[in-house]
Every structure is written in C-alpha cells, then in structure tokens.
Write a structure and sequence with these properties.
Rossmann fold; six-stranded parallel beta sheet; 17 strands; 36% helix; binds adenosine monophosphate
Length: 392
C-alpha cells in the first residue's frame, strides 16, 4: 500500500483525530448491534497504547444537516466505554465553543467522542471552513471508516488534506490491501460472484472486472435481466427493462474477452413475493411466477466453477435470503466459499449480513465493511477518502 498507515505514525504525546464508522443501528435508545464499534477498537487501542489520545468523529443515520436528538451519539459513547473499559468523554457538538478546549485538555490515554458530524450540513457538502475547525482538534489524522471513503465529505476527504499526516487505520488498511490486490494483482483463476437486487448498481463493476476475472457468476434479482437479454422466459421475476440492452452488451463483451458468464439454469419460483408463498423448482420460469432463488442445479454449476479458483469476490445474495424458503442458494454459495482455500472477499451490505447470519464470517479472508465503497473500489474508481491520505 502506498498510503501511510497507522503503524507508520509516531503517536507518543499526539492527539489523533480519527474518523470512525459508528453508524450503528439503535433500538430504544441503545446500540442494537455493536459490530462497528468493536471493529474500531484495534486502532483506538493502538493509539492509546502508544502514548497518544484520540478524538473520535462519526456520522449516525441521516439527520440531514440538523440536530436530531434521536441520532445523538450518547448510546455509542456508553457502549464504547464498556468495550474499551476506559472513560469516554462525549461532547454535544463537533465544532464550536467547548469543543476545542475539550480537545486541548485531552491527556495521553484520553478518549473524546464528538457529536454526530451530519448535524452540520457542511459535513456532506465537504465544506472547507468546517473541515478546518475539525482539523484543528488533532495533531494527526487516521481514517478507519471505509464505508464512507467513497464520499467527498468534509471529515473524510477534506480534513485529511489539511493535516500534517493522514493515515489509514487498521480496518481501512485491510480493506485497501484485500480490495487493492483483487483489482491490481489477483491470484488466478479469479471469479466474481454478483447478485442482489439490481443490475444497474453493478454494471460498472462487471465492466471493470471483465478485464481481470476468468468467470463472472450472476445470481439474485439481477440475473433475470440477463436471462431476458438471452430471450429466456422470466415470468414476473425482477426485471430492469431499461437495462436489457446493457446486459446484452455485457454478455457480448464477456465473450469477446474470453470470460465465462454463468447464469442460473434452474430456479426456485413462487406464486408471489411472500415468505410462505407456494414455491417449486423449475428450469423454465412459468408465466405469472417469480424467481426468488437459484435452484439446486445452478448451485451445483456455480459451486463447480468455484472449485479451482484462487480468488473470489462476492457481492450480492443469490436470492431473497431474508426469507428462509429462498435462502438456500445464498447459503450454499457461502458454504462453498467458507470451505475454499481461495482468497475470499465479501462485499459489504447484504452479502456480509448473510455470511454473518450463517456464522461463517471468520471463514472468509476478508469481509468488507463498506457496501457502496467496496463497489466503487471494484469499479476501479479512486475513493476520495483514500486519495486524501498521505503517501508513504
Ligand atoms: P443488493 O442491495 O443489490 O445487494 O440487493 C440485496 C437484495 O436483493 C436483498 O434484499 C435480496 O432480497 C434481493 N434479492 C435477491 N434475489 C432476488 C430475487 N430473485 N428477486 C428479488 N429480489 C432479490
């Protein structure tokens, strides 16, 4: 990695302004899932153990530039305090009177948590003045919030440029290493598995990956636009009619590039989009039926293709995995990857949720913490939050 990482910094006596992703689900004023807080602990502890102090900043939800009392970070501060087992001072704003003095009063080992950045519209606008105020709160900058690195927001893309040194935290470093290798120097054979709801979200990913992979495996709702492009019957399955031509074009490009594209050859179809709808397995989707999962022969076809791969990237479930009747395809693929010796990289969002739900997370090489960010990375785009970090 050509960007500075947290391990390269001299932290002794330094105040580190750290962008973290504490955008956690809340329920009844409490943190309902602390995975993201726990994930940031390594970088936070590393700074504290090496003689530094931390000023943490994050967004939470979508307050749209206004104070929303439901989206204050107090429950996060409480949970962080428990996990870190040390006091966390939480402020009621991220800039303004009281914030600078509190930051200046921090001593080595101290932890300060700023209020939700998105209470200020300037955060999402990438405002320079707002960024300057944030930047004044630390001596060094660390970003450990991969999930927002594709956004040119003030705390992500502007603050690091205003500071002496800006480095990737451990989480971000791992993202850059795994995703970077998958783009620049993957071990072959290399397969991409793409699924989920929409083709439109993944067109650019497929286009970019066609230059690198040996096979693209397509399942989930997006597969049906491709099957339509091949003239196959799709019943009432998910279709993006305005993307059929794009799908045709991608199939042609894959063929020209010598890349295998694998599509479902059988399906679990249902009478309607409901968890307990009547369902059956078919090769050809009958009129009026909706395909909600890949079928057993498809599972076999996909699994077979994955057998000899050395690198696999997976983004998007193979079916409506939230409904147990249509989760088998996603489960089967997750198990194949869990038992594989290949480098397995799981895109964030729903795919990560599915793998977690199955208890297979620790069997994967890397689970990305950013859905949108990992897609943009795989599209080959430079993410503003990574570009803004200091070069080594
Ligand atoms: P994405 O956010 O694009 O990764 O899409 C994930 C969503 O796609 C999940 O909520 C799945 O339920 C949904 N999905 C997967 N397969 C299908 C399908 N065959 N029909 C409709 N939705 C699907």
């Amino acid at each position: 990695m050509n960007k500075l990482s947290i391990g390269d910094l001299d932290l002794n006596g330094k105040r580190v302004l750290m962008r973290v992703d504490f955008n956690v689900p809340l329920a009844n004023g409490r943190v309902a899932d602390d995975t993201r807080i726990a994930a940031a602990l390594d970088s936070i502890r590393y700074v504290l153990d090496n003689g530094g102090s931390v000023v943490l900043m994050s967004h939470l939800g979508r307050p749209k530039g206004k104070v929303d009392v439901e989206l204050r970070l107090d429950p996060v501060a409480g949970r962080l305090e428990e996990l870190l087992d040390c006091p966390v001072m939480k402020l009621n704003d991220c800039t303004g009177p009281g914030v600078e003095p509190a930051a200046e009063a921090l001593r080595p080992g101290g932890v300060l948590l700023l209020e939700n950045l998105r209470f200020h519209p300037e955060e999402e606008e990438g405002d320079e003045g707002f960024a300057k105020k944030l930047a004044s709160l630390g001596d060094l900058y660390v970003d450990d919030a991969f999930g927002t690195c594709h956004r040119a927001h003030a705390s992500v893309a502007v603050v690091p440029r205003l500071m002496d040194k800006a480095a990737a935290g451990f989480l971000l470093q791992k993202e850059i290493e795994y995703l970077g290798k998958a783009i620049a120097d993957p071990e072959k054979p290399y397969a991409a598995i793409l699924g989920g709801a929409k083709v439109s979200d993944k067109i650019l990913v497929i286009e970019n990956l066609l230059k690198k992979v040996d096979a693209v495996i397509i399942g989930g709702g997006m597969a049906y636009t491709f099957l339509k492009a091949q003239g196959k019957p799709i019943g009432t399955s998910k279709l993006e009619a305005d993307r059929v031509d794009v799908a045709k074009d991608l199939l042609a490009k894959a063929q020209a590039a010598g890349v295998d594209i694998l599509l479902p050859i059988d399906h679990v179809v249902a009478e309607k989009f409901e968890p307990d709808a009547t369902s059956r397995v078919v090769d050809d989707i009958p009129n009026g039926w909706i395909a909600l999962d890949i079928g057993p022969r498809t599972i076999e076809l996909f699994s077979d293709k994955l057998k000899d791969t050395r690198t696999v990237i997976w983004n998007g479930p193979m079916g409506v995995f939230e409904m147990p009747a249509f989760a088998k395809g996603t489960e089967a693929i997750a198990k194949v990857l869990a038992n594989s010796d290949a480098t397995t990289i799981i895109g964030g969002g729903d795919t990560a949720a599915a793998v977690n739900q199955l208890g297979l997370a620790d069997k994967m090489s890397h689970i990305s913490t950013g859905g949108g960010a990992s897609l943009e990375f795989l599209e080959g785009k430079e993410l503003p939050g990574i570009a803004a970090l200091s070069d080594k």
